[in-house]
Amino acid sequence: MKRKITAGNILYALFMIIVLITIINPTAKGFMIRGLMHIGLFQPTVPDPSASKHLLNSQFNISFRDTSGRLVNTADLKGKVVFVNFWATWCPPCIAEMPSVNDLYERFKNNHNVVFILADVDNDYPKAKSFLQKNNFNLPWYSLTSQVPDNLMDGTIPTTLIFDKNGKLVYQHSGATDYSNNKFVSFLSSISK
Fold this sequence. Notes:
By secondary structure, this protein is of the alpha/beta class. It has a single domain (49-191), classed as Glutaredoxin. 35% of the residues lie in helices and 19% in strands. It is built from 5 helices and 7 strands, in the order H-H-E-E-E-H-E-H-E-E-E-H. The chain has helices spanning 7-24, 26-38, 92-108, 125-134, 182-191; strands spanning 63-66, 71-73, 81-87, 114-120, 141-144, 159-163, 169-174. Helix 1 (7-24) packs across helix 2. The longest helix is centred in the first third of the chain and has 18 residues, at 7-24. The protein starts with 6 loop residues before the first helix and ends with a helix.
């Protein structure tokens, strides 16, 4: 019994190869998620800044170390809006959302009322630096030097937290999302005035 190689068989084989690559390769999976962001999926749920509702009533002090070795505590950043993103170089959803985080950072990097902290959960400076340089991201990255309360981060990455100028949590999201979304940019602008 001989089997013919048909165009359908070739297309099926190519499709299966693409599926396998997407499952196995974090960069390919990140690229796929990024494509879904561009068609409108993975959009952030933007809080209403006029409601000024805090997600949790207590304030938090999370410590980070920057690339020069300087310690930064969220409690010391009162008076500023603090955007914290927990990520890793091997995480496909992190890879997918990183261009939008970079776009957001580029829009706000000269706003002295907003601080960006991108915390590499692996605390691997050489690997993080290589990843950011390879992708032309101009993001400030940090290592985590304290525990993060479970009610802020359940271990899912990426996780993004935004603290208002009073140190209260006003945004919390786990999973990839498109932070270059105009509604999200407006939200961050409104709370950083």
